[in-house]
Amino acid sequence: MKYNKQELIERAKEASFVETYEYVGKNHSIHTDTVKYIGNSSFDNSEIDALPFDENGEVDADVTLMDREDYERTILANCSSTWDDMYDDGDKVLVIVIK
Predict the structure, then answer these.
(1) E-assigned strands of 1-99?
(2) Could you tell me the CA-to-CA distances from 54 to 3, 16, 72 in Å, in that order?
(3) What is the pTM of this model?
(4) Residue 6: enclosing H or E segment and its boundaries?
(5) Max CA pair span of the chain
(6) Is there a contact between 66 and 54 (Cβ–Cβ < 8 Å)?
């Protein structure tokens, strides 16, 4: 789905942190094996600012608000890092994956 910057910023208001990724390969499922982090390591709205918006000001992306369970099952699957290494209980992460 295509999103403009303002739509992504509105979604980010629901989250404690923002992370941006791009898919690697043809499998477009959000999982540590199929996404690569492309953000600026700020984990805030500045990650949205750096996205490759097209001439219409939109970006084609999958956008998901994740809690601990979702994040551990997808982004942290097969990783040595844990939720507790980065976030607190109750945090939510807006994961944006560029198609």
Answers:
(1) 2-4, 17-23, 35-37, 58-66, 93-98
(2) 10, 27, 31
(3) 0.95
(4) helix 5-12
(5) 39
(6) no
Q: Which two tokens stand for residue 73?
A: 């099952």
Question: From the CB of residue 69, how many other CB atoms can be counted at a distance below 10 Å?
Answer: 9
Sequence-distant (6+) residues with CB within 8 A of 79 are 32
C-alpha to C-alpha distance for 58 and 77, rounded to whole angstroms: 30
Predicted confidence (pLDDT) per residue in 28-83, tens digit: 999 999 999 999 999 999 999 999 999 999 999 999 999 999 999 999 999 999 99
Helix (H, G, I), strand (E, B) or coil at 79: coil
The token pair that represents 13 in the structure block:
């208001």
